[in-house]
Structures are given as structure tokens and as C-alpha cells.
Amino acid sequence: MDQRTLSHLLGISTELAQQLPRVNEGDIGAFTQALVRAVQSAVTADAIAVLRCEQGIAYPLACSGLAPEAMGRRFVIKDHPRLAAIAGAQQPQIFAADCPLPDPYDGMLLATAGALPVHACMGFSLYQDAQLVGMITFDSLTPSAFEQVALPMLVMLQSLVAAHFATALNLAALSEQARHGRAMLRELSHQSYTMIGNSEVMQRLKQDIDLVANSELSVLIQGETGTGKELVARRIHEHSSRAQGPFVQVNCASLSEHLAESEFFGHRKGAFTGADRHREGKFLVAHGGTLFLDEIGELPLGMQSKLLRALQSGEIQPVGTDKPQYVDVRIVAATNRDLRQEVEAGRFRADLYHRLSVFPLQVPPLRNRAEDIVPLAGFFVEQLRKKLGVRQLVLSAPFLKQLQAHDWPGNVRELEHVLSRAALKAKHTALAQDIVEVDITHGVQWQASAAQAPADNPYSEATSVPAAQTLKAATEAFQKNLIKARLQANELNWAATARELSVDRANLVRLAKRLGIATLKKLT
């Protein structure tokens, strides 16, 4: 094969590669049209067609020189001998001018008027992983049109076209999956992350969210545990220009100091013991979208300076490499702590606080928006109805009054949990009834007193130990009860509990394990 032919084939490969990014947007039509033009520059023919093959059917994706009706044809491969011969061969097939086999395009070439049969035909199959995915056919009304075509050139053309065609199909499939996934995510997000409430404080919060959403400002969401700070973060993302990008959440309270850098920025294989492969950090995963830093007040001081550098420069450096990477992320952070007090106490960097709190948002506790309790209850009840598989689930008037009378120290999350327990009890007592009513007999009276007990005396349970014990047993009982009480008060957050008890988190976990304390979904 001469240098000129090789150079031409290289040009075809380059042209097809340049069309692949369009496929990533789902535009496989543009690629197949480019494919027709590319092979037409290598082989002269009156008609060329690119066909997709699936489940024994071949159908045109793009063609040149064929009647428009050809694009609507669906060929059963086994019913068309020439297509079957092309599909079953790994090498290009050139049919003799006097071949008696019928051609699927007889009478459809535009090169001349009339229903004339095709006189020259050839084609080659396109395989991916031993599976037929397509074929390209060449037809001409000149009987000797393909006699001078060099077979080695055709073989090389087949090879490079098959590779690009398979890549195009894969990109198109991935693009379709991504669109489907994004559509499902939007639907699920709308159902699961709806902000309920029309109280005055909630209306102001929604207005502030809508105001800041379309900006690129960093947002600091503050509020008590269970108020719905994550919902606020998701609403900001969904109403922003980055809504089509990823929303990536990082729970800073769960990050140990020596792994936090890898979690944020990623690492390279061999960067440290246990790094057996490359791993992308959350910053890179969130590129083009929003990075939600939940419980930012729990982030170790040593990691705060590294996070600040990334926010200032827009660059990250994975552990184990010296090469920085640019990332485009919008930062939304949340905390249930007063970060100003944390700054004054030296537990949080002032410069990071000011970088994060460009636009602060305060999420009101449920006790400050009591008029939203009933709408929230209705929202949760409808979700519970579906989960429990009952036709109708309703709340009695006395039960609603009891809900409104409670001060909800656990906020919206506590309301959801109380309703879940009450609905389950109501279903159990209602047996096979179509309409299940939740009333005060299934209700929250004992929950209210239990929730308020820690506020009255957070150490009451810890100090309740039998008198007839040895000093060691009494000490261990006190430690166990105290740790359990503070874990419960801190929503099972080990880092917050350790800070409150002024002990190292790792030491607290070891002590709790020795005392027989384990946290799954509840204390045991």
C-alpha cells in the first residue's frame, strides 16, 4: 500500500475522530453522515449506505445516492442474500458483476432514472467484540466499478471504520443513559427534596434561595439539626445555572483527618498504604456542578487550610501527584454550629469562614414556623401511605393538635420519625382496613417527654446507677450512660460527642466499644 493511500486513510480516521464529541450529545446522525462522506472519498460509488445491525435487522442510519425511501427500510438480513454474505464475513465482500443474488437496493439508485437493477456491489461488516453492529454497502450501475479497488486498502478502511463506529455507538448509548438518569434524578429530586411550608419565615428563606441560586456566590446554610439544610442546598443547585451538573455531598463529620485530603482531592495509585488504584476526589466529581459540604464545622483544622487553598485558586492536587488540576465547582456549606463562636474559640479558621459565608442563609427551627407542621405532616403521611402499602392514611384532629402543641427539638426530622412510628402502629391496629387513621393512641406523648429530658438534665440518666456496686462498676456504668446520652443528643455524631466530652474521637470510639456501646441505626 503506497504512502498516498495511507495518508488518505489517516485523514479519514482524523475526520471521524473529530465527529465523536458530537455523539456525546446524542447526535449519532452527524457522525454517520460524516462516515458516508469519508468512505466516499476513498471508494467511488453511485450509492453508499451505513447500516446499523440489531437482532438480525439492518436499517440505514445514513446514505448517499439512494432514494429517500431507503432510509425507512428495515432489512431482515437472512432474507437478503447479499446482506447476509456481508454480515457473515470478516473480510470485505466484492460481488461479481454477473452475481445472480438480488440486491436490496435494486431500483433505488438515484444515478439514473427507471427501475434498473444494481450491476456492481460490495460491502464490509462492522463488528464489536465478535458482535455484528453494522455494515457499509457500496453500489454502482457500472458493472466493473469495484474491480480495481485494492483489497488491502479495503481491509484497513474496514478496520478503522469499525473502531470509530463502535466508539460512536458506545458514546450514543452512554449519552442516552445519562439523559435518562438525569431525568430520573430530577423527578426523584422533585419528589424527595420538596420544601414544604408557606409560613412567613419560609417564604423569606425561599426568596433568599431564589436570589442567590443563579449567582456563583458561596453559600453558608446554618440551622439546628433536622431543620432541612440539605433541602436548601439542593434547591440552590436545582435553581442555579449548574442544575444539569452534578450535586455532590460530603459529610465532613465522617472524615478522619488523614483521609480527608484524599476524599476531597483524590489520590493516585501507590500514594499511601491501601491506595491500590486511582481515585477521583469529590472536587473533581463535582466539576461543573455543586459541592455540598455538610457539617463543615466538624472539619479538622489541618484540613481547613487545604480546603481554603482549593477554594481560592480553583485548583486541586491529588495525593501522590505534583500536577494541579483546575476544577469548576460552586460551594454550598452547612452547619448546625455557630461558626463565629468556633472562630473565636480557635476551632475554625476565620479566613475559611469568610470565604464560605459570602451569602449566609438561616434555616428556621420548626418551633418558629408552627403553621407549617400540618402541611409537613400531610407531606410525610402521603409518603408513608405509599411505603406502608395502604389505600388511605389520615391523621385525626386530636393527633394533629398534639403535633402542633409539641416544640420539636429535633425539628422536621423528628416530626418525620414520629409520624413513621405512629403510622406503623396505626396500620398494625387497623389490620385490613382500607382507611387507616392515626390518632393519639399511636402518638407522640411519650416521645415529647423523652425528647425534652436531655434539655432538663443531660446527665440524669448517666447519674442513675444502683448504689450496691463496686467503684469500678459504678464508674463504667456512669461512663456508658453518659456516652449514650450525649450520642443521642448529638444525633449519633461521634465527632460532636467527642468534642463535647473533651476527648479524642478515636479514644471515645475505643472506650465505647469496650463498654459495649454500638451505633447502628439506634443505640444498643
Please characterize this protein's 3D structure.
The chain has 524 residues and is of the alpha/beta class. The protein has 4 domains: 3-174, Beta-Lactamase; 194-364, Rossmann fold; 369-442, Helicase, Ruva Protein, domain 3; 471-515. 47% of the residues lie in helices and 15% in strands. The chain contains 19 helices and 17 strands. It has helices spanning 3-23, 28-42, 81-87, 151-192, 200-213, 229-238, 257-265, 282-285, 301-313, 339-344, 350-356, 373-388, 397-405, 411-430, 445-456, 460-463, 471-489, 494-501, 505-514; strands at 47-54, 57-64, 75-76, 93-95, 120-128, 131-140, 219-222, 247-251, 266-267, 279-280, 290-294, 315-316, 325-326, 330-335, 359-362, 392-395, 435-438. The strands form 5 sheets. Strands 3-2-1-6-5-4 form a 6-stranded antiparallel sheet, sandwiched between helices. Strands 8-11-14-7-15 form a 5-stranded parallel sheet. β1 and β2 (57-64) form a beta hairpin. α17 packs across α18. The longest helix is centred in the N-terminal third of the chain and has 42 residues, at 151-192. The radius of gyration is 34 Å and the shape is elongated. This is Transcriptional regulator. One of its GO terms (molecular function) is ATP binding. Residues 195-424 form the Sigma-54 factor interaction domain.
**Straight-line distance between termini:** 77 Å
Q: What's the rounded overall pLDDT mean?
A: 84
User: Would you report the number of β strands?
Assistant: 17
Q: In angstroms, what is the radius of gyration?
A: 34 Å
- Give the C-level CATH assignment of the largest domain: Alpha Beta
Report the principal-axis shape: elongated
CATH superfamily of the largest domain: GAF domain
> How much β-strand is present in the residues?
15-25%
Main sheet specs = 6 strands, antiparallel
Uncertain runs with pLDDT below 50, 5 residues or more? 445-461
Sheet with the most strands: spatial strand order: 3-2-1-6-5-4
Tally the helices: what do you get?
19
Please give the share of residues in helix.
Answer: 40-55%
